[in-house]
Amino acid sequence: MIPPLSTAAAGMQAASARLESSARRVASGEMENYAIEAVEQIRAKSDFSANAAVARTADDMAGTLLDILV
User: Fold this and answer.
1) pLDDT category of residue 1 using cuts at 50, 70 and 90
2) Which domain of life, per UniProt (predicted)?
3) What is the pLDDT of residues 35-60, one digit of tens each?
4) Which of 36, 37, 46, 66 is the most buried if burial means most Cβ atoms within 10 Å?
């Protein structure tokens, strides 16, 4: 079983790295189409948000389980 918090953290790190790479390409002028980079940045932000929601949900579930057990 893969722990959901670890998975979410890895997903947030990957999304952050993708956003940073895209921002570097825009800043350096390495790409030909800014629209493609804008889409990539929106996707990275959405992926980060989705993984953050998974982390929050896993945390809430663990808290609820502890409340039940105590």
Assistant:
1) low
2) Bacteria
3) 999 999 999 999 999 999 999 999 89
4) 37
Q: What is the mean pLDDT of residues 58-64?
A: 89
Burial of residue 61 (number of CB atoms within 10 Å: 0-12, 13-18, 19+)? exposed
- CA quadruple 1, 17, 40, 48: dihedral positive or negative? positive
**Residue 30: φ, ψ to 5°:** -70, -20
Predicted TM-score (pTM) of the model is: 0.84
Q: Which domain holds residue 54?
A: 4-69
Is-contact 20 70, C-beta < 8 A?
no
Q: Which two tokens stand for residue 49?
A: 């948000």
Q: How far apart are CA 21 and CA 18, in angstroms?
A: 5
